[in-house]
Known about the structure:
This protein is of the alpha+beta class. Helix content is 16%, strand content 34%. Strands 11, 12, 13, 14, 15, 16, 17 and 18 form an 8-stranded antiparallel β-sheet that branches. It has a 4-stranded antiparallel β-sheet with strand order 5-6-7-8, with no helix packed on it. Strands 1-10-9 form a 3-stranded antiparallel β-sheet, with no helix packed on it. FE2/S2 (inorganic) cluster binds next to loops.
Amino acid sequence: MAGRYPFPAVPDGWFGVAGSDDVAVRQVMPVHLLDTELVLFRDDSGVARVFDAYCPHLGAHLGVGGTVCGDGLTCPFHGWRLAGDGSVAEVPKVARPPKVGTRAWDVCEANGRVFVWHHAGGLGPRYDVTPYRTDGESWTPWRVDTYRVRVHVQELTENIIDRAHFVVVHDMVEPDVDRFDVRFEDHSMVVDQHVKVTAVVEGGVEVKTRTTTCGPGIVAVEVKDGELDMLTYITQTPVDDEFTDITICFSMRALDDEVVTASISELNAKTTNLQFAQDIAIWENKIYREKPILTQADGPVAEYRRWFRQFYSGWT
Ligand code: FES
Ligand SMILES: [Fe+2]
């Protein structure tokens, strides 16, 4: 994809690297994301950690055969032991180990996912991952669907405010209430709107939605209507300069009737995944127009792009 986009492949922000359930205590796994070879593990006390993958000694991949030791890892090649901050804590048969190490990433665990903080200039986190499902109510277990798509994360969230494509790509019809409010607040974009979806039910179902982004890597879509409280939680993580991994997680506040809860979950998952799939062919084959011809039928594309610029500290 050389030259497909003028901006860096990996913006600054929190990015999902795995589901919390994917990495058990003492489990170690290689992860290739953010254009970087990483090792993800859960230490003896249950804390998820991410290091740059290659051992500072002779370069073995710590995610392939490395084992958890305390809060860190033991390398599979010559047994060097790295502490939780990535520094070399012990070298077999050597009294004073060299003062070297591998990079330990800032990690946070929220909403059933493990996130790492990426910053082109090496600065620490400047915002938190917003927690959801914190009301003490009983929520259905996350239903998770994953995709790998040839598209940049900036294009994915531009789709949220690209209102001219809703009717053309997503079989939506004009809602009865014409509401489309977009606010840009620091690292978040908040979109309140009514949408009428015909993909699953003929004649359409109109719902009020709030879409909130948390940096460039996280999108939450909330639908609240009377008893109904549904959350679609999306993480989007650059793999390299070509592909992005997208995880669509769905959960809803459990209703009294289990059967109704299950059927609403199913309907929502079907709609969300269908709508997502409808965008893929456009995303994978389009080019990025730096100066698009915009009309009043379009959403605030130019404003969105100016707002997104804050996530490119490494782009001059
Ligand atoms: S390469 Fe890791 S201990 Fe030698
Ligand atoms: Fe779309």
